[in-house]
Amino acid sequence: MAKEILMPKLGLTMKTGTIMKWFKEVGDRVTESEPVLEIETEKLSHQIEAPASGLLLKKIAIVGEKYPIAFVLGYIGAEGEQVGAGGDTAGSAAGGAAGGAVGNANAVAASVSACVADAQPETPESGGRVIISPVAKKLAESNGVDYKLIRGTGPNGRIVKEDVELYMKTRHADAAGTAAHDTIEHTDVPAPVILKGSTMENAAATGQDKIVPYTGMRRAIGANMLASWEAAPMVTHHVTADVTELVAYRAKLNQGADKSDKVSVNDLILKFTATALAGWPIINSTLTDEGIVLLGRVNLGVATAVPDGLVVPVVRDADRKGLLQISREAKDLAGRARNGSLSYSDSADGTFTVSNLGGYGSVDFFTPIINPPQAAILGVGRIIEAAVPVEGEIKIRYTMGLSFTYDHRIIDGATAAEFMASFLKLLENPSRSVLL
Fold first, then answer.
1. Which CATH number among 3.10.450.750, 3.30.2320.80, 3.30.559.10, 3.90.460.10 corresponds to the domain 232-433?
2. What is the 3-state secondary structure (H, E, C) of 128-163?
3. Residue 181 among the catalytic residues
4. pTM of the prediction?
């Protein structure tokens, strides 16, 4: 009996996944646990493995489209085996990929209709059949776009979400160009240049507008941040910390140490954050329908910039680990984040996030957005030398800007202030703090 390839549920907040690529074609032989396709969800890519050995009988999911968890993405089975609703026969090794592709568009329309209303392909007055994905159709209708005018780039000319987005952007640019020509008759308005992937070229150098597709990781980040902003009443506290002792302590720790074992200021911040969280369960919590869950583990998310956006790998059980172990794990996770080799599990189950912009040397304070379903996030600014009054005298000290954002549904302002006070004590007495 054919096995279904299902969209997995890869986290508490996951609802959908976007198909990035298929590694196999219809008719190809696959072995159990072999990667057959790649999806993207919540800023990470994840490879879905074959549930059994056999032939890839049918590919239902289309690259670039988004599907809910438990959706049937394809089938694996024996040659000639029938799969799908209504006894559809999948493309086999003999039938080839072409025959399977025709069935895919129909299968998608039929399968997704259970999740999205009015998902059937449309037929224009001319009699030609227009195949459009449910997501693309909804986007077009909500923006007053006649999708019959759009040329689809999906299989068999299927119109996908990106086609609608590109059409709307092009139409908007054309309208802007026409308006400019009407008001400034002798000014040429260059047409936008479409950029592929994440290439960020200098538009000013060419004098032309450039459109960077809002897709993939960037769209996932945007959706996640918007959901957080709309759901949680966020408040941010800012404070300047005296980190003179922290800087001196780090220098002592690194004296004579191998390069691989040297600790950074960020490593120390992670260690002290984990220590502080262990004493403040309400900060290390999440809000559910059942109530506020005080999480039993301190899993620190470390916000890490990558070429396409931002990922948050997790140092698990950070409150139970020594400084050097945290340092090694954080470095390893950051390296794998930047070369794209993180797995889903590397970024799952975070309970609190630290976002450090201090290394750029241009940020003192900012307003970090909570990484849902977490209750809070710590933002770290740069270290600078500043004139500070100390016991009636002005002295030059190292200071650091800290920004603590929290969900006011869960955490009160006084509680947040007390937590930051305990964290500041750890920073100010680092030689003692590492023993806790």
1. 3.30.559.10
2. CCECECHHHHHHHHHCCCCHHHCCCCCHHHCECHHH
3. no
4. 0.62
